[in-house]
Each structure stands twice: as C-alpha cells, then as structure tokens.
Design brief:
two-stranded parallel ribbon; globular; alpha/beta; 246 residues; Rossmann fold; 44% helix; seven-stranded parallel sheet; 9 strands; single chain
Length: 246
Amino acid sequence: MSSGIEGKVVLITGASSGIGAETARYLAGRGAAVAVAARNEQALDAVVADIASAGGTARAYALDVTDKARVDAVVTEVISHFGRLDVLVNNAGIMPIRPMSEVNTDEWDAMIDVNLKGTLYGIAAALPHFLAQQSGHIVNLGSVAGLKVFAPGGTVYSGTKFAVRAISEGLRQEVGDRIRVTSIEPGAVDSNLKHTTSGTAAEAVQAFYERAVPAASVARAIAFAIEQPDDVDVNEIVLRPTSQDF
C-alpha cells in the first residue's frame, strides 16, 4: 500500500449521510475509489451521483452491518469490482441516549449490534484480505464518549465506544507490523446521529449538538490518517468543537 490517498480503494460503512457520506466525497475528491455502504440505498445513490458529477469514482452497496454474512459479501464484492481493498472505515453507528433507569434493552441491544458487533464484523471481513496482501488500514469511528463516560443517559453508548477503542488498540498490537489501525474519536458532529435519540433525553441531546462541528471536519481527520506514509500509523485522533467541555 503506497502512501497518500490517490488510487486507494476505500470501503465506508454508514455512508449514506453524515460523516460517512462526507468522508466518501472528500476521499473521492483526493483520488480514492470509494465504496459506500449503508441500508438507505436511495441516499447512497445520491452520494455516488455527487462523486461521479465531480469526476470521482464510487460504487454503492446495500449493507446492514448487523448482518455478518452481508458484511462478508460486501467486502468480497468490493474486491471483485475494484481489484483490491486498501482501507475499511467502520463508520456505521447509532446513539439512542436514555437514562439506564428506563431500562430500554431494545436500544441497548441495537447499540451493541451496530456500534460494537458491526465494527467487529467489518474487521472480520476485511482483515483476512489485508493479511493476505500484507497491507491495509482499518479506521474505526469511536467517540469522545469512549474516552469519558457520557452520563447520565449515554452510559451504554459509552460502553460500546470504550469497547471500540479497546478493540482498535488491541488489533493494532496484534497486526500493527502489517496493518494500520486508527481510532477516530469525535465530539459533537452535525450528522443524523443526534436524531437516533428519542424520549426523555431528546431535547438535551439536540441542545448538546447546537455547537457541533461539520462532518467535513471528521472527513479531514480520516484523510490525514490515511495519507500518511506506510511507516506511520496514526493510532488515534480526538477532535471536538472548541466550545465543548465533554
């Protein structure tokens, strides 16, 4: 895998909007071939159309990251279509904020399935290919809530993001001599993530996101990690709005 972004094949999950879509547009503008994957196929097609109209290369793949077999299939399809895979960006995530006292186990299950197992399924699908080609880069989207517990309300969400950070670091220690691993930990970002909260905490979450940074800020951070020479692995990037205390 050469340094820089141009010519690399990048698969991005949760790429129909927000950080995923903005990262796809930005990397395609830097010369990457981008595979965008998400459940919302219509929104994916719009992202691909945007990239194509700007002269970039992109292809859409329907994907629910909680479906392990489908994650495997998408990675296989991307390699078949583009000839290789250089970077996987595990971006898909949800953030239903709610006090634990409300005991909404459906939301707990969903966060574990999407945020944690979805990330693991992506790693499981891409890692064998990366090891076989002796190169590759896994970028996992964490959160500042994976550095400090976001409570009250975000306790389970923080649990999933602490786990993503731990998995990223453990994976780096295991395969870092061949495969690069980066954990991106944003604070408040203007994206659809803030709309996955309902119930008693919805108003507080919307207020928290009033000073959010644009998704393009995270896209640039991801690009910075990817564009480094092969002998440089940017392990972790934390970024927040300048006004954010948490």
